[in-house]
TrEMBL record:
Keyword Cell wall biogenesis/degradation: no
Name of protein: TonB-dependent receptor
Composition bias, Polar residues: 321-331
Lineage: Bacteria, Pseudomonadati, Pseudomonadota, Alphaproteobacteria, Acetobacterales
Gene3D superfamilies: TonB-dependent receptor, beta-barrel domain
Compartments, as annotated in UniProt: Cell outer membrane
Length: 772
């Protein structure tokens, strides 16, 4: 198996140089990123703008075919910079798209992809164990695997590059232009096939103007943050943008016995973008980036007796009992990507090639006990190489065509260790493994104008995936009165308890059909039927039960959605609402299974049939009332298993999953609101902001009575002061003003106690920002 993957990976990596020059060859007909294939317009135009193309930060160059009045002679070109809001650009997309601008990210202190869930309807994200393994879901679709080696049902893209594992977007939320969350099955106009949706993060791109900013902030727990970005035109054809972010602070958690702090931050990230204007119609963007994290992982609370090394039944929100466990993060990684863009009279070609590496050696007190029970060490190295190229064409006034191809190869070599207490024996479980994945896909998307106001959308995708895993858990005693594990294993030191050496390959056809109707200028109604596909998975955690390591079959989803989008009063009022119905087959999820009265195991498995129904509504008001901005969202989810599950991978569930059981990470209700008001005084401006988020309780795993989280809410306030020119501003803020102490993730630990993670406490800070 290893030689098979190496042969494929070496072949793929060897083609990288060819990809860079490929756009100049006749085979350009292989791709596109635009879902609607709409041409760019001027700022005052009423036609839809291609969201993904504009989000990439390029300045459109329009030919006479696209804009006959813009060019007088052949060969001349007029550059038009599109400045419409991010939400406006997604207005005509036949699906729900929630956009948060870079300015909103900064004012709301959304520092990582996980943080945007608080202000995006229908999205949840939480950290389980180390902060480098967040669990995402969109409308209840994701993969609740805390290990971090599996790709969920959500595709996360950084400047168009797919990040298959959470570690690859650690620290890279710096100098961001926008974040767009697309709901429902994806993969018909870019990237990999996903069942739940995608999160597209776009950084600020280089321009031909010198400028930038510098910022410093100080906040609770002695937290310092410094960041800057500088844009430098090197020549008339080359421009560069360098962004830097560093944060360092003490931990907000405190050990009740040792006084040691947990949750400390020590994160550095840097990114350099260089844009080369090859000619008037083509450009190359080079992206180099690096991240380093040496913080201290947060520790959960073990709700058990203090005399047994736990935190007690009713601990303070910041109290932990981690003993002498040296919880830490030692992570670093980086990579590069090259994007080539070429404009033609008939469309736009784009090709993005990327390679990334990441290394981590993290220690977590997984179950929050001072005793060495389920302490984890995550030691792995990951590499991913990917390529996506696409051509967007307008072949006729009534027909838009998008064709593309995507391929990626990723590999993780890991050595995960779990320290367990079995009766009087303290044992190590080690899972030394190699996981390798190869994915390819060819996609086509069409938009046909049936009438002046009615469009028919048809998309298709063929995906081929290979998954390989070679590894398993071994047993070694480190402190014991017996060299043998207790019943039911009776294993000798060094014996293999579990093991998998397998490879699976499969292919799927997925598609989407829909109608989009233009009710009025900038007002659309749509309806779509689509199906999504997510590749199979392996569970890489050290486990006692052999069945817990079994292969998990691919997930399939059929999605029905109707919605309406409208932009009124010259983009001052934007409304987006949708209703959806999802039908799952083999939904992948995390299960809790008891092995003995004193031992249990988590494992991945599937629910044969499940269903999610719900609705979302989001509204933005910009300056409809002078100097006042409002943003609000609401989501409802009804996510339930439709097939009972009594056994997973040979493990008996107690209690079993019954029909109509709630699915994990599917809060019934959630909502958020943000208001900003500007007060102009002479040459200065004072900005007042209030924000509030609320999410209903939800389950983190099936079959575990302790896995239900509490309701989570947070109120934030912010005040800014500075000149109306925006040259500089100073701000003070407080997050979680009410100092809520909800548990964001919980489960049953190895000692059968409830284990819980608590939301961050009240956070007060100040910032100084200067633009140059």
């Amino acid at each position: 198996m290893k030689s098979y993957f190496l042969r494929h990976s070496s072949r793929l990596l060897a083609t990288v140089p060819a990809y860079i020059v490929l756009p100049t060859l006749p085979c350009l007909l292989l791709a596109s990123t635009s879902s609607l294939a709409a041409t760019a317009t001027t700022v005052t135009g009423s036609q839809p703008v291609d969201a993904k193309h504009v989000a990439a930060g390029r300045t459109r160059t329009l030919s006479t075919q696209h804009h006959p009045k813009a060019i007088a002679h052949k060969g001349e070109a007029e550059q038009i910079r599109v400045t419409r809001s991010r939400a406006q650009r997604h207005l005509s997309t036949p699906g729900t798209v929630n956009v948060i601008s870079g300015k909103e990210l900064r004012s709301l202190h959304l520092e990582s992809p996980k943080d945007i869930a608080a202000f995006t309807p229908g999205v949840t994200a939480t950290n389980a164990v180390s902060g480098s393994a967040p669990i995402f879901s969109i409308r209840g679709v994701g993969l609740d695997d805390y290990v971090g080696t599996n790709m969920g049902g959500i595709g996360i893209y950084l400047d168009g590059v797919f990040a298959p594992f959470p570690v690859f977007y650690t620290g890279q939320m710096l100098d961001i232009d926008s974040v767009a969350t697309e709901k429902g099955p994806q993969g018909f106009d870019m990237g990999r096939s996903t069942t739940g949706g995608s999160i597209n993060i776009q950084s600020v791109k280089p321009s031909d103007k010198f400028g930038g900013y510098a910022e410093w902030g100080y906040s609770s727990y002695n937290t310092n943050r410094g960041r800057f970005a500088i844009n430098t035109p090197i020549t008339s054809k080359i421009s560069n943008r360098l962004a830097f972010n560093y944060v360092n602070g003490d931990g907000w958690q405190k050990d009740i016995n040792t006084g040691k702090r947990y949750g400390a931050q020590d994160l550095l990230a840097i990114r350099n973008l260089t844009k080369f204007e090859v000619d008037d119609t083509s450009s190359v963007l080079l992206n180099l980036h690096y991240t380093r994290d040496k913080g201290t992982s947060t520790s959960p609370q073990d709700l058990g007796p203090v005399s047994k090394g736990d935190t007690g039944l009713h601990p303070a929100a910041n109290a932990v009992s981690a003993g002498n466990t040296s919880g830490q993060r030692n992570e670093n990684g980086g990579g590069l990507s090259v994007n080539y863009t070429k404009e033609f009279n008939f469309g736009t070609f784009s090709s993005t090639t990327a390679i990334d590496f990441y290394r981590r050696d993290d220690t977590d007190n997984y179950d929050g006990s001072a005793l060495h029970i389920s302490d984890y060490r995550w030691n792995d190295t990951a590499i991913v190489q990917s390529h996506d190229m696409h051509l967007r064409m307008k072949l006729a006034k009534i027909f838009h065509l998008t064709v593309g191809v995507f391929e990626s190869y990723d590999k993780i070599d890991g050595d995960y260790t779990s320290l367990r207490l079995q009766s009087s024996s303290a044992i190590n479980l080690n899972n030394h493994f190699s996981q390798q994945n190869l994915s390819t896909g060819v996609y086509v998307n069409t938009v046909t104008n049936i009438t002046k106001k009615l469009d028919f959308i048809a998309s298709g995708r063929f995906s081929y995936d290979e998954r390989g895993f070679n590894g398993g858990s071994r047993y070694s005693a480190i402190a014991s009165d017996s060299p043998r594990l207790f019943a039911p294993y009776y294993a000798q030191v060094g014996d293999a308890l579990t093991g998998v050496n397998a490879r699976h390959e499969y292919h799927r056809f997925t598609g989407r059909v829909g109608l989009r109707y233009k009710i009025a200028p900038d007002t659309y109604a749509y309806g779509t039927i689509s199906n999504g596909y997510k590749a199979g998975s392996y569970f890489a955690a050290p486990v006692l039960a052999a069945g817990a390591l079994d292969y998990v079959k691919p997930e399939n989803l059929i999605a029905y959605e109707i919605g309406i989008k409208s932009s009124l009063f010259h983009n001052k009022l934007m409304v987006e609402g949708s209703l959806f119905d999802y039908e799952y087959h083999n939904r992948q999820t995390l299960f809790f299974a008891p092995i003995t009265p004193t031992a249990n195991s988590l494992t991945l498995g599937t629910i044969p049939r499940a269903r999610t129904r719900g609705g979302e509504l989001s509204t933005t008001l910009h300056n409809l009332v002078p100097n006042l901005d409002l943003r609000g969202s609401f989501a409802y989810l009804d996510a339930r298993a439709k097939s009972p599950v009594n056994y997973i991978n040979g493990l008996s569930l107690d209690p079993p999953v019954t029909r109509n059981s709630s699915l994990p990470f599917s809060p019934r209700f959630s909502w958020s609101a943000v208001t900003r008001y500007n007060i102009n005084v002479d040459r200065y401006r004072v900005t007042l902001q209030a924000s509030y988020t609320w999410k209903d309780n939800m389950w983190a795993a099936l079959g575990d009575n302790n896995a239900k989280t509490s309701k989570i809410s947070s109120l934030g306030l912010r005040m800014e002061f500075g000149p109306q020119t925006g040259k500089w501003n100073a701000a003070v803020y407080v997050d979680n003003l009410q100092n809520r102490k909800g548990n964001t993730y919980s489960f049953t630990g190895s000692d059968n106690n409830r284990i819980q993670y608590i939301q961050s406490p009240r956070w007060i800070g100040c910032e100084l920002h200067y633009n140059f």
